[in-house]
Structure formats: C-alpha cells, structure tokens
Amino acid sequence: MTEVVTVPILEEVLKQISERIVKKLTEGKKLTDTEVIILLLDQMNKRIEAMNESLNKRIDDTKNTLDKRIDDAKDTLSKNIENMKSALDKRIDEVRDTLSKSIEDTKSVLDKRIDDVRDTLNKNIEDTKNTLDKRIDDAKDALSKSIEDAKNTLDKRICLLYTSDAADERS
C-alpha cells in the first residue's frame, strides 16, 4: 500500500521539480549538478514509463492473442470431439444394424432348417406308422389266414374223426 501511494507522490514531486529546473534553464540560468541529475532522472523515468506502457501493451496483446488461440483451439477440439462422437455413433448404429440383420437372417435360416427337420421327421414318422400299420395288417391277415386254415383243417379232421367214429359204431 505504501509503495502504491509513494510512487505517484514521487512522480509528482519529480515533475514539479523538473518544471522549475526547465523554467530556470529557459531563463538562461546555470544549472547545478543536482538539477542536471534530476532532469536526467526525469527523462529516465519518462522512458521507463514509456517502456512500461509498451511492455504492458505487448503483454496485453500477447495475452489477447493467446486467449484467442486458446479459444480457437478449444472450439476446434470441441468440433473435432463432436464430429468424432457423431462418426462413432454412426458406426455403432451401422454395426448394430448389420448385426441385427445378420441375426435375423441366421434366425430365418435356422427357423427354415428346423421346419425342414420337423417336416422330414413328421414324414418319416408318418411313413413308419404307415409301414407298421401295413405290416401289422399283413401280419393280421397272415395270422387270420393261418388261423382260418388251421380252423378249416381242424374242422375237416374233426369231421373225419366224427365220420370215422360213426362208421365204427355202425359196424
């Protein structure tokens, strides 16, 4: 705080003293060594202030340039990130669509194969059933014929035996 107040006061004192010395110089009076040194200090102070202002301007310009470059880089990176996100979202959607289609195609193929296997098995079962039914019917017919033949043979034998017994009784 003291430094902030002291510098402007010293500058004002130096300014007033310099003005008196310049007035003395314009009146043609001779300057003392101290007055010459004060004039030199005033000139140096003015040069330092000018340099300080120039440096502050350069610092401000550099800061503004860097701020703009940082903002531009930030904007560019944000756009790049957004573009990358959009591209990745699009690729993910394409992969999902491709995989979904592939899954659907595979499901359709498998469903068809399952239906074909089911139809083949049902046909084989039906054919086997028909074959077994025919073989059973054939076996029934063969057994029925054999039973009928055996019955007829037995009937004939019984009849012959009966006739033979009747003949024996008559004799």
Briefly, what is this?
The protein has helices at 2-26, 33-170. The protein has 171 residues and is mainly alpha-helical. Helix 1 (2-26) runs antiparallel to helix 2 (33-170).
Can you walk through the features of this model?
With 171 residues, this protein is mostly helical. It has two helices and no strands. The chain has helices at residues 2-26, 33-170. The model has no long low-confidence stretch (mean pLDDT 89).
Mean pLDDT, all residues: 89
- Name the helix and strand elements from N-terminus to C-terminus, one letter apiece: HH
Query: Low-confidence parts, pLDDT < 50 over ≥5 residues?
Result: none
Shape: rod-shaped
Share of residues in helices? over 70%
Question: Main sheet, how many strands, which sense, barrel?
Answer: none
Give me the number of helical elements.
Answer: 2
What structural class results from the helix and strand content? mainly alpha
Strand content: under 5%
Computed Rg: 63 Å
Number of strands: 0
| Spatial separation of the terminal alpha carbons | 171 Å
Features:
171 residues, mainly alpha, single chain
Strand-helix topology:
Layout: H1 2-26, H2 33-170
